[in-house]
Design brief:
Oligomer: single chain
Order of helices and strands: HEEEEEEEEEHEEH
CATH topology: Immunoglobulin-like
Helix content: 25-40%
């Protein structure tokens, strides 16, 4: 069952949902940066000590050693928003794609797969990096490297997302699958494919199954 007003997604709302999926990654990057900086200082200190004792010249590595390592898999997140009027909780799951897709000006970004529910009503959609227009389209899906299937997904009013017609079925399959590839066609361009991997999101997906009943 689909919430009647969920498809009126503005660009700012989509960016807010995508930010939820990146929050955990920011913390990871921050920790990685601090560790990298500490290691770099220790390495430079060691180099100076060796130089004074052996009278030999040592080259200090460039600051690129401070760059944190990017996680191998994207990080998902669940946002909980309580309606102060009804005390009902809206749950929003967001997962970034493991690959990047060029946006309208050629910059590489990640698509986001989103599932949200409130009071038993569920919606699932892909927030697309490029503009896809305000028309629906036939989307191709490939689960776990298997056969390719096609489904009709409806558009968001702002042309920045495509909605699954069977959100509960999609959520359940996400929870039991390893990978999903979604292929769609941006406006006036050739089709692109977003890859979503669920290994590190299993607990979040199981929780969404429980709260979205």
């Amino acid at each position: 069952m689909t919430l009647p007003n969920l498809k009126n997604i503005s660009l700012s709302e989509t960016q807010k949902l995508i930010a939820a999926a990146s929050a955990a990654a920011i913390l990871f990057f921050g920790l990685g940066f601090s560790f990298g900086r500490q290691s770099s200082v220790q390495e430079r200190s060691g180099s100076r000590t060796d130089s004074s004792s052996t009278q030999s010249t040592h080259t200090i590595k460039p600051d690129s050693s401070e760059t944190p390592v990017v996680p191998k898999a994207p990080i998902s997140a669940i946002d909980e928003d309580v309606d102060p009027l009804t005390d009902q909780v809206k749950y929003t799951f967001a997962l970034r794609s493991s690959n990047t897709i060029s946006n309208s000006i050629g910059m590489a970004e990640r698509d986001t797969l989103i599932v949200r529910c409130e009071a038993g009503e569920v919606d699932a959609y892909i927030a697309t990096t490029p503009y896809v227009s305000s028309d629906g389209q036939s989307v191709k899906l490939r689960w776990n490297g298997g056969a390719i299937t096609s489904e009709w997904w409806s558009p968001a009013s702002g042309g920045s997302a495509l909605f699954s017609g069977a959100p509960v079925t999609l959520l359940n399959k996400m929870a039991s699958s390893e990978k999903l590839v979604i292929s769609y066609k941006p406006y006036s361009k050739t089709a692109v494919s977003a890859v979503f991997e669920f290994d590190q999101s299993r607990s979040d997906l199981i929780r969404m199954q429980e709260v979205c009943k």
